[in-house]
Amino acid sequence: MSSARSRGWAVLLLLPALVVVLVFFVYPVFALSARSFLEPTPGFSQYVDLVTNETTVTILVRTLVVALLVTVVTLLLAYPYAYLMSLFGPGMRTFLLFLVLLPFWSSLMARTFAWIVLLQPSGPVAGFLGFLGLDGVKLLGSQLGVTIAMTQVLLPFMVLPLFNTMTGIDRRLLSAAHSMGASRFRAFRTVYLPLSVPGVAAGSVLVFILSLGFWVTPRLIGSPQQSLVGQLIETKVGKLLDFPGAGAISVVLLVITVVLLLAVGGGVRALVPGAKTDGGRDDG
Amino acid sequence: MDETTRAGWGLRLWAILVAVLLVAPLLVVVPISFAEKRSFKFPPDGLSVDWYVNLFTDQRWTSAIGTSILVGVLVTLICTVLGTAAALGIHRLGGRVAALVTGVLVAPMIVPGIVSAVAIYSVYLRWQLTGNLLGFLLAHTVLAIPFVIVTVTSSLSTTDPMLERAAASLGAGPWRTFVRVTLPAIAPGVGAGALFAFVTSFDEVVAASFLQSPAIRTLPIEMFVSVTNEVDPTIAAVSTVILALTTAIVLLPAFTRRRPSQKASSS
Question: Which CATH class is domain A23-278?
């Protein structure tokens, strides 16, 4: 078998997809980024505007805070859930996985609409808060409502990487630590927790990145007065046709994304929960 | 069961809470879809199937459903063919070039959604790809193709390369080897990738909301417009239908999972 001919075949196979993605995705992202450095005049004027505009900075900081909050809360919710999943036998585990995959595969619009119903004034969540004595909390059209909805929408993206990592942890290590006199808590803290860090990192980066670029949920549940960066980009493009300005914010988001991905390492595949969760779930 | 595999009641309670949080919010759309009055009141006062009738008779909704299915099916076909071919090429090529190509091909999955959408819009606007089917097809193809690449690549990495060589040494040509040996081995990955591609396209809101025009809208866009402009429980009926279909899709592997072709040994 000639290896040059084999390479030729390989290139021919990947070329169509590569051309399509380069022309219809990479070029647009590149062009939008480039405009932020070229218009109205070549240089960094868009970026100077960005850091000196109080509203823009406020929105960027608010987005980072919401993204961080969503990441922390989803982690706190998901870690024990994924841990319990990895503990159970195949039957119960499949059921718990089903409960995660259902929202994971469900329509984002349907889920956001559900949150509009839940958070509306005199809706179920307001009723529950009233029951707790917290009357008159504004949910729809507030940052609180956006954070609650985003947390629930992004929860599966935290559970799946955690679960993938935890199923790979050898539980005999815990038994060993325990048999040598470590308390359950200590065995968990010194043995299990460090081994689960790759899952924590992958899930956290995934949820954080998705939160940064989230647009649908903040747009429909939040308010223009407390907008997140997605809404800012939309306004710049949709209402003002300010592509260079939108490009500058996009570059900022891209840089944060790339830095986070490089920091967590381990390649992109760790960030595609579905890819690992679909096939071969029978092992273990 | 020893001491370390026991799940405490605190842990169980927490997991039940998370389970409820995962699923319960999805279910509120069901009662609303059967509401009698034009309202999102939860729970509704009276029951009717008016909104389902509206969903399948109002031209606005039926044409959005049609557009979404058409775009979804075409995108799935394009992505599955191009993505599988590319994954095979990457697998054969190997090395740094392959890693670079993979990086480019999965980029649409990593770039934040709103950035992709605005970038696509800014260029497609110049190329007259807004407000038409071709624009939706191209945008959804690039956004969905990474999922096919990732699932097929992951299938290929667990396939024994000796099988292909054995087929070749027995006289099978490249095409025959592919159809008879490689394709059956990676079929689950290709299937998962195709499903991902369809769902990505069918569910996509952000890029579509920039590319849409009143003349051509996908279903999520019609839902977006509806929920922004009016109180119309038809959106709850759509959501319920989609939820039912999603449940079927998620349950599907549970019924087809007992395949004999599982890995020979489990580590």
Answer: mainly alpha
